[in-house]
Amino acid sequence: MYRVKWLEQTSDCGCPSMWEGETDDGKFIYIRWRHDILRAVVGNHNKEYYDKGNYILDDCTVVYYENYYAKDGWLTTKKMEKILSKHFIF
Length: 90
Hints:
Elements: E1 2-12, E2 17-23, E3 28-34, E4 37-43, H1 47-51, E5 60-67, H2 77-83, E6 88-89
Parallel strand pairs: 1-6
Antiparallel strand pairs: 1-2, 2-3, 3-4, 4-5
């Protein structure tokens, strides 16, 4: 289980919905919901490493990757945190 230090929603246009954040030990968190797939990964490095052009999906731990169908077409932060509560402490 990962403890979240901070988490920010970076896109809320419905599809994709995305969040970026950091664990309490400094690893980058990337969460994305698109085409009814919710993916949460934790990078093996900090955010600055990935901001330099290193692709997170080439160097991460996949924490969650499952279908999630939202009846209303939106995945709110509250819903996302509930789904991922077995893997993250928000």
